[in-house]
Records
---
Amino acid sequence: MLPWEPIIAISVVLGISIALLLRYLISRMNPGTERMVKISNAIRKGLLHT
Amino acid sequence: MLVLAVLTVLIYGLDVAMNKGIPFVSASFMLGTISSLLAGYVSMDAATLTNTRAAQAARESKTKPLTVSFMGGLVLGLMVVSMSLAGVAGMFYLYWMLNGWSNVDKVPKLVMGFGFGASLAALFAQLGGGIYTKAADVGADLVGKVEAGIPEDDPRNPAVIADNVGDNVGDCAGRGADLFESISAENIGSMIIGASLYMITRNMYFIFFPLVARASGLIGTLIGSVFVKPKEGEMPVASMRRALIASVLTTAAIFYFVTSWFGKGYIYLYISSLLGMFAALAIEVAIEYYTEIHGPVKEIVKSTETGPATTILSGLAVGMEAPVIPTIAVLVALGASYYLGSLFGIENGIDPHYAGIYGTVAATIGMLSLTGIILAMDGYGPIADNASGIIEMGGIEEEVGSEVKDVLDAAGNTTKSLAKGFAMGSAVMASLLLFQAYVDVVKITQFNLIEPRTLIGLITGAALPFFFSSRAIRAVGRTAFEMIKEVRRQFREIPGILEGKNEPDYARCVDISTRAAQKEMIVPGLVSLAAPVVVGFLLGPVAAGAFLIGVTASGIMLAFLMNTGGAAWDNAKKFIERSGRKGTDEHKAAVIGDTVGDPLKDTAGPSLHVLLKLVNNVAIVMGAAFLMYSLSLLG
């Protein structure tokens, strides 16, 4: 193995893992009132439509 | 999809001609396109997941929404950079294995399709996203705010959801795909140049350094992001600036370690990479000076006293002046890094010119190593914008107070403007680097400007960004017109919307923006793809090189003009509103300035970044074909 290969591999794994962990933590937060969730879902639905 | 299929078949033709039919370039093109679209999707997913949670956080404390919004932005930044690194490194190792371990120098040219694919998807994401977002914004504002007199982000406005969707399409998906493409193409271009140095020195690290540097930037982003801890009463941008500075310092420290693997004279390449980072910071400072409340924006505010014409003139003047400092910063970084690289070459017995070019590669890599943290700050913008909208539409504005909403808005505008500045700087550096990679592919040794074909190529290239911008701006005008008609129709035909008794048809407005954006981006997209190919086959590889320089030189000036001028008009209007002069003649003049600037700063300007890199990527992929065709004509 070349000496720099572990740096590339570790940083990719670390970057993706931390991003997924942050996403999970955000998803566990309180999304607010029913109305707020409805608006957010409408924005999400609109985005998927694009 | 049709464009993608046709291009894949055409690129496979290149594989048949040059790679014995093994689909190296066409497969990397497909993967680059898919990865870039995925980067855009991941960005939008993170933003829409976070927006309502950031709004909810505003009910709990004043600083929490900032932290939550930044977390969402960080998901975006980390994913985009990691996916780019994983894609380029993964393809490189796969092709290296398939080609035989002794043929490492040939591999970067096989991966170049990845950069082209990423560019193509980024162009459609940025251009389509820009048309979408501005059409929805203008439609929502003109009918909702001006005609019906309802506030911004009011749920009674039929275009309000399209407007909020647009924030994400333009700033998340568009910028995510733009920077994904920048770092991927820059990595591949650097590896192509590194392969030439490997052939001279047999040091494989010249090829791998771009990947190692990208990994170092990712670690710098992770460490820097820990410093985002907003304090009560402090402007949120201050904590993000701390994170940016911490990222720069950490990445600079790691770079010292990773450049030392070059051995003798490594310090020259290390300083070159630092020059790239300083150029990025200098561009940020310049953009902030021209777009925040300093001399230039105050000049526009003053000119509103004499009406819209002088407002437009002063905004244009600010936009035309704005490219000067960033251009000087980039040129100083490139010139000094070329000199330092040649010193590295002299010390190691390498041709100083080739080593000098590698010095500029180190500077570009240094600048783009900050992509992760910049994207995290950029992602904050649309999340904060949406959170602010949800606070208003969700009916919790009184509970959280307008102060939190204003702070979220103001910080979002600043981070978006900083990210755009960075995207512009990185586009210049990346396209100049890609140009060097093109020169390497077609083995051009000199450009003769007295030769008519070269001159024709140069001027054709200079004209392309103007044509492209014209189509983008017209597209916004046309789509906004459709949106305005639809919002008026709904107010007229659906009873009780303005009284809040009946819900508007939000989906119809989303549909109008989507369809129009998809339709309007076809012509400028196809012309951008075809122009370098036509010039390359008709006038030869040297003229195609001149064409690339023409596009870069005029495109970057135009991009700075439009992005900075547009942001300056926008902030002049906001300054007037904050100083309690809403509804006055000055405000009306400022609104006209802002409306003119909107498609410039959010549609045409950002799309030009991608155009610069796309034409270079097309030329790199087609370079060998240009060369073969022109040699066949010579017999």
Note: The mean pLDDT of chain A is 83.
---
Amino acid sequence: MTALLRADGLAKAFGGVQALQGCTIEVDEGSVTGLIGPNGSGKTTLFNVMTGYERVDAGDVFLGGRKITNSPPDRVFALGVGRTFQLTRIFARLTVLENMLVPAPRRSAAGRRSLPGAKRAAPPDRQRAMELLDFVGIAGHAAALAGTLSYGQRKLLELAYVLIAEPAVILLDEPAGGVNPSLINHIAGRIRELNAGGTTFLIVEHNMEFVMGLCERVTVMDSGSVVASGPPDIIRTDPRVLDAYLGGSLEDEDDVTAG
Amino acid sequence: MNTGITWRAGTAAILLAAAAVFPLLFTNPLVTNYGVYALIFAGAATAWNLFSGFSGYISLGHAVFFGSGAYTVGIAAKDWHVSGVAVFGLLPLAAAVGAAIAVPFGLVALRVRRHTFIVITIAVFFIFQLMAYNLSFTGGSTGVSAPFLNWQAATYNNPFYYLALVILVVTMGLAWLIRRSRFGLQLRAIRDDEDRARGLGVRPMRVKLAAFTISAVVTGLLGGLWFYYLTQVQPPSGFDAQFDLSVALMTFLGGFGSISGPVLGAVLIEPGQQYLTSRFTNGYVSEILLGALFLLVVLFLPRGVIPTAAERVTAWRAARAAHAPDPLPADAADGAVAGSGAAVSAGAEGRPR
């Protein structure tokens, strides 16, 4: 397998805090990769620099061999990298259906080598939007203002409107955080289905059951760099991981502050 | 929903017909004068709302476009010796100047977010007012003037009235089309969360600048019309801080981000303001009242008359529907939203139009 999304030696400091330091991570095409680590280990910062929300101090980000380091968020999205946020960010004063129609169609820049699996898409239409709302299970709320949705439903809406542009890779920031158990299973099922259809995922999540059950590969971060990477069974028993993260109880990391 | 659309279209047709016959029923020029001002400000508030209401970026510098439009046609008519009805042919120039100013103005001001944006628009406003006082071709503090058109006094106001009405109707149609379009959706997404919209491929600068420029074109055009109506412009009347506050207040009162709100606000406020200005020549009475009204609206009616009224109607309908025997389907994905059916109907019908 080849790496679809790759970060190479990323460094990012906020004032005196080194959020990322020599951070290298590979997300194989067609995989579901988990990203775990204690709060403050740099997971969300990594998401932010890979999607253009923050600029890196050093290092590079590649998407299918193309350098996308410090590209603005709209360009990163157009090239095929979608993401969700830890604290959901939906358009509260638009209806659920209108939220679905905001994303721009994904484009492959003319004259350049297109990304694997990339195809030129028409602007999102209502029918496709309704299909996706149905897929995540909130089609019944299509006409409601998005601000009236529950927290879990917002997570589903965020996933749905990222999907409408058919990104090659989707970065999910705590998709199961603050969501009830039956909905967690629902989200996991949807991710499996999408992955079977060829979508690559990188998932930050504190819910170990969710990560270990879903991901074929898990990367562990601590203090801004990757300390281990491998299949869930190996990661579970890796002494460095136990030391950095899993030492205590697996389930006590459920706060919602930046990770 | 269909009955709602029919009802709305019917109301719009009746109001348009009423506006069209108004000068024929009330022939007193003192009365039609109020009509001309109300329509000019209804158009200006609609144009302002098309940018500020949709994008959430409050501009307090739209007088820049209004004044520039006025000065443009005034100076052009004088320098090129255009007179009589032909002066109306210069109005597109006022619109073009509005656009020509909006692009660089927007490229600078739209780089920053909300509050800083407001401050920059105010600063640009003062720069333009100062330029009007000090540049050689703007006539300093005496400004620019033109001869009155040689029309009969009794019907002098009517052509201005109908031209302003046409501009208003076209601008409202434009606002309606934009609101329904993908462009309008992107503007409203920017209003809710600009960074998130950006992460979904929306290019905020392009979208905001386009709306800002469209808004400036209409405002410049109205400034040109206003100049011919008054046949004079001075720096403090063309570049008038009260213009900025007025269009914002009218929009907030009627309904920020809605289509009919700014028009309602203008029709409610502008005649009163004109009356007070003519009644108390020292001027500050209307300004004090305008300021007080602004405070009251922001404190007690922050969403405006039309969205608030629409909400009441929806709540009343929902309450009536709740008594109906057929229960609403419970379709919440996680079953956590109590009364989600009512929320759905509130969302569908309670949106500002």
Note: Chain A touches chain B through 51 residues (CB under 8 Å).
